[in-house]
Amino acid sequence: MGTRDTSTEDTLRAGDIASADTAHPDASPSGPRDPMPTGNQRYHLGPQLGRGGMGDILLATDLQLARDVAIKRMRDLEHGSKTRFLREARVQGRLEHPAIVPVHEILFDDEGRPCFVMKRLSGTTLHDIIRAQGELSLESTASVKGSRSRLLRAFHDVCLAVEFAHTRGVIHRDLKPANIMLGDFGEVYVLDWGIARVEAEDDLVGSIEPRPSAGGGTEAGAVLGTVGYMPPEQLRGLPVDRRADVYALGCILFEILAGKPLHDGRSLGAVLEPYDARPSVHAPYRDVPPELEALVVAATAPDPADRPATARELGERVQRYLDGDRDVAQRRQLAREQLARARAALHDGDVTSLTASSFARKPPDAEHRRVAMQHAGRALALDPTIPDAAALVGRLMLEPPREMPPEIDRELDAIDDVNLRDQARVAFFAFALYLVFIPLMVWVGLTSVPYLVTVAGAAALNMSSTLALWRSKSRVSSPFLWLTAVANCIAIAILARMFSPLLVAPPLAAAVMLGLNMHPRFGKTSLLAAGLTLAVIGPWLLELAGIGGNHIGTIGTSLAITSPAGALDGHRFAIAHALFVGALLTAVGLLARQMTRTQRDARRAAHLQTWHLRHLVPAVPTAIPTPIPGTLRASRA
Length: 637
Prior knowledge:
Blueprint: E1 17-19, H1 20-23, E2 43-51, E3 55-62, E4 67-74, H2 81-93, E5 103-109, E6 114-119, E7 123-125, H3 126-136, H4 141-167, E8 170-171, E9 180-183, E10 188-190, E11 197-198, H5 232-235, H6 242-258, H7 269-272, H8 279-282, H9 290-299, H10 311-323, H11 328-347, H12 356-361, H13 366-382, H14 387-398, H15 406-444, H16 449-471, H17 478-499, H18 505-517, H19 525-544, E12 552-555, E13 558-561, H20 570-616
Antiparallel strand pairs: 1-5, 2-3, 3-4, 4-6, 5-6, 7-9, 8-11, 9-10, 12-13
Helix pairs in contact: 3-4, 4-6, 4-10, 6-9, 9-10, 11-13, 13-14, 15-16, 15-20, 16-17, 17-18, 17-19, 18-19, 18-20
């Protein structure tokens, strides 16, 4: 009975509401009437707090005791409603339990409408709490998990209150989250006993062909309950017993775990037709404890005989979960069921033991492995001592699949791009040395402007491509890598023409071959080798063919090399060549160091994963079989 805003205040004149034993002829005597308060005016009515199926709930002030109370007043006097209304007050009044709102007295107003006075509540309905959590379920999982324990404790209290009513022969028949209130100070209340059935009494007058009311509420005189929380036997108009309330409690527990109702409250067929009551199926993003899921399935079984016998049993099983005292036998049974699902996922329903030959005969694909890992992990969590689950988890984690999952390929591509950008950073500074060596070329005697400009242009082209790789944020494409390779081949061919294929070009070609083949996406090693080889010896072959002049010859027993770019000074060239060799070795060393660091990080991650796996999966006596031929062998820590 949470407080709702209202724009008007309903005031009551003296004499509007009097004691039930004198103010209305239908009221039965109940002993001497208390003459207080004087003026026959005890309650001052305030704003409306809510609406029930038959009456409005008003805030009121008890002038005699100076306290706030809630008064439920019937809205009209249609046929049969008064009897049902008074029956609700008397049923609720005789259930003296902390979780059931106490009724103080029954009154009649001057229009003859019955009212009953109750304790004024302050809190929030379970329906509103679950709806608020549902809006946060994808943004704040920790908040949902943190509050779920509170709701489960409240659910346990509700089960005990319902069990208390059952021991007094009262069946609620309209349990739902909207009829459960959580108080501001830890109180829990079960509300709205208007259609409760008292054993050994006739059922209330009403249609046995229920129809849902607007907003999913309880509609007086049309539906004895709320569609979506009534069991199939109640919807069919059959007699119900205490297990009807157990079914409704199961629906409430489902809603606590899944964050949404089990059934569509607008469709009777949703309850009468076959349904899956597993919260994990309806809300896969939530972490649903398997034992609570099994409890929901049992409590919402279509056949009453398959449900827990009492509301107390239902509440105690929830309390055992909260206390951490999970039933060992049930936990092992759930673990075996999860393991069977894992095996079925791997072998399309074949739940026999998994062996090395079965893996080799029919290796599971990525999707089946994913599902199997989920179920095997749950089995291991339920029973860490089960050896088959530990062996299966270890096998799935250590043996690679027949086909790599697409998300793994995408992650590896992203890692390759990061490594390529690191290599491009080293290569950028290496190509910058081209520009540094242009003054040295002039110093050793190479003064041909066209050659010098060509070398500078090739260096600038390679620096631009490596800078683009270095700064790129998107996926590096294979055509761009080949464009970089072509630019390098052009630069090497120019240097081979200037210095012959014997001096500068070969070590540069080797460095480029190493750098490009470090990236797995480049592929075609033979094609790259052919291109670089042609770049190195192509100018010499042209010379042998008589194209471009002859710049490699002999003088006696010595080899003579001249350059088409100018007259080389031998002493200066020797100094410049030594500097070139040192710079080249430095660049190749940095590139190799980067490759070593990358491989080291990858091995460290693999060994760390193996170390974690050793502590996650308990040791089992069965040895892991030899990996499938043709697959990668797992790293050993």
